[in-house]
UniProtKB/TrEMBL annotation:
Coiled-coil regions, chain positions: none
GO molecular function: acetyl-CoA carboxylase activity; propionyl-CoA carboxylase activity
Top-rank lineage group of the source organism: Bacteria
Compositionally biased intervals (Low complexity): 51-62
Pfam families per UniProt: ACC_epsilon (PF13822)
Species per Swiss-Prot/TrEMBL record: Micromonospora avicenniae
InterPro entries: ACC_epsilon
Protein name as it appears in the record: Acyl-CoA carboxylase epsilon subunit
Segments for region (Disordered): 46-70
């Protein structure tokens, strides 16, 4: 492909400069690979509200002890 050859061409209609800019923006955004977000660790503030080492109660009577203060 030469430098003068357009990447795409309008076949029908007369788009405005804004419409062409929106089309180019959409094509560029679509052609880039999606960024994979890294998992976010819980902040110190969020961890402070969780009791350390206490998970949900299991076993006989667990439903009753789940409502009791720890």
């Amino acid at each position: 492909m030469s430098a003068e050859e357009p990447l795409f061409r309008v076949v029908r209609g007369v788009p405005t400069a804004e419409e062409l800019a929106a089309l180019v923006g959409a094509v560029v955004a679509r052609s880039r690979p999606a960024a994979v977000a890294a998992p976010v660790a819980a902040s110190t503030w969020a961890r402070s509200g969780r009791p350390a080492g206490t998970g949900p109660a299991t076993g006989a009577g667990a439903w009753r002890t789940s409502g009791l203060p720890r």
